[in-house]
Design goal:
Blueprint: H1 4-17, E1 24-26, H2 33-39, E2 46-50, E3 53-57, E4 63-67, E5 73-78, H3 84-88, H4 146-152, E6 163-165, H5 174-178, E7 196-201, E8 205-210, E9 214-218, H6 220-229, H7 240-251, H8 257-260, H9 272-282, H10 295-315, H11 326-334, E10 358-362, E11 365-369
Antiparallel strand pairs: 1-7, 2-3, 3-4, 4-9, 5-6, 5-8, 7-8, 10-11
Length: 375
């Protein structure tokens, strides 16, 4: 299932390419024909994400809510722009205290400010509709080293700006069909590929949604109800109150911490990968009841989630290893096998103690953990 960082990246894509533009909406698959008819001809005024939910405002009291679920993904084609952070993030993660790859040009190592407000990047039209939360976008003006960036691209395409969501191997993506076409090719917009639930089309860019768990037209009140039902998301709310809420919720529960981190009512956006990695980094046994995890440890997990989520949004990859040398960082950016401490490493030696990583089922999902480091 796409985790929270992917949904925030998709929201950024829409803010850069669709906000302020009037769109044609359709449902090539036919399952969203009535909803598309409501959206067709409207102007997108705002887009935001909370956890694994995305909300798109079409003016008045008309919103589109999308939850990708296990199989959902958005494909973008045509003229695709994104913010400087995503475009130049590979190898330059100084703002998150992650060791960055040294580029050929010294200026390329300049840090970026992770607390720059996105309003400076994308000015959405004013609206009286409910806001779906605070945005944070890092600004970057670094020079690019195209050779190195190509080396750092993820072989599985996680860092793609044209196809974001469920694993790429699960379907033939529109962006792959159109890859290499000139910008002025007369085939724009490309024909829909596969079962497209909804297509949003501007004069220059097209976005196709496939396989979502939820895709519905809702009101602002509906949006607020969904948000109120979710646990805190650091990209939506990174205040002390959000940390306190998460900590209090975890510490009153007898439920194992490994299940609590996957509960979207406890904390938003964490999925199977981040669950395993956060618990390993905190050296917490996933079976420990939440109420028995020390308060400072719970707060540490939240703060680590703040940090890892920012890295995931900026690089497009769930990078969870720190202090890598240049070669280690190149390998990690290019391959999932070199990116994580325990996730999908069952039977392999722990990178810290050498004990074989364990695999079991918890909450109908695979759980990876080290029985020694997380004893």
């Amino acid at each position: 299932m796409p985790e929270g960082h992917s949904v925030h990246r998709i929201a950024r894509q829409f803010r850069h390419n669709f906000v302020g533009k009037t769109v044609r909406a359709s449902s090539p698959q036919g399952r969203f024909a009535e909803g598309a008819a409501v959206l067709d001809g409207r102007t997108i005024t705002d887009v935001d994400a909370v956890g694994k939910q995305m909300f798109m405002h079409f003016g008045d009291d008309v919103w589109l809510r999308v939850h990708l679920g296990m199989y959902g993904a958005w494909d973008f084609a045509g003229q695709i722009t994104t913010d400087p952070t995503i475009e130049s993030a590979a190898g330059r993660m100084g703002q998150t205290n992650q060791r960055g790859t040294v580029l050929a040009d010294a200026d390329a190592d300049a840090d970026v400010d992770a607390d720059t407000d996105a309003e400076a990047e994308t000015a959405a039209p004013a609206s009286d509709a409910p806001r779906t939360g605070k945005r944070r976008v890092a600004a970057a003006g670094n020079k690019r080293d195209d050779v190195l960036l190509a080396e750092l691209r993820d072989a599985d395409g996680e860092d793609s700006v044209s196809s974001i969501g469920a694993p790429r191997r699960a379907r033939v993506r529109m962006s792959e069909q159109t890859k290499g076409l000139p910008e002025d090719d007369e085939t724009f917009p490309p024909e829909p590929v596969g079962a497209v639930r909804v297509r949003l089309l501007s004069d220059t860019t097209v976005a196709d949604l496939r396989g979502p768990t939820a895709c519905e037209v809702v009101t602002g009140a509906d949006v607020q109800r969904v948000i109120d039902s979710l646990g805190p998301d650091p990209q939506h709310d990174d205040t002390q109150a959000a940390e306190d809420r998460f900590t209090a919720t975890v510490r009153k529960k007898p439920t194992p911490i490994g299940l609590l981190l996957m509960d979207q009512k406890v904390v938003s956006g964490i999925g199977n990968v981040y669950r395993a990695e956060l618990l390993f980094r905190a050296k917490v046994n996933p079976h420990t009841p939440g109420k028995l995890v020390p308060e400072e440890t719970v707060r540490g997990i939240w703060r680590d989630w703040v940090r890892l989520l920012a890295i995931g949004i900026e690089t497009g990859q769930m990078m969870t290893m720190d202090d890598l040398d240049d070669e280690g960082y190149r390998l990690a950016m290019a391959s999932r096998a070199d990116r994580h401490w325990v996730y999908k490493r069952e039977g392999l030696p722990c990178r810290v103690c050498g004990t074989h990583i364990s695999l079991e089922e918890m909450g109908a999902r695979k759980l990876y953990w080290c029985p020694v480091c997380q004893a």
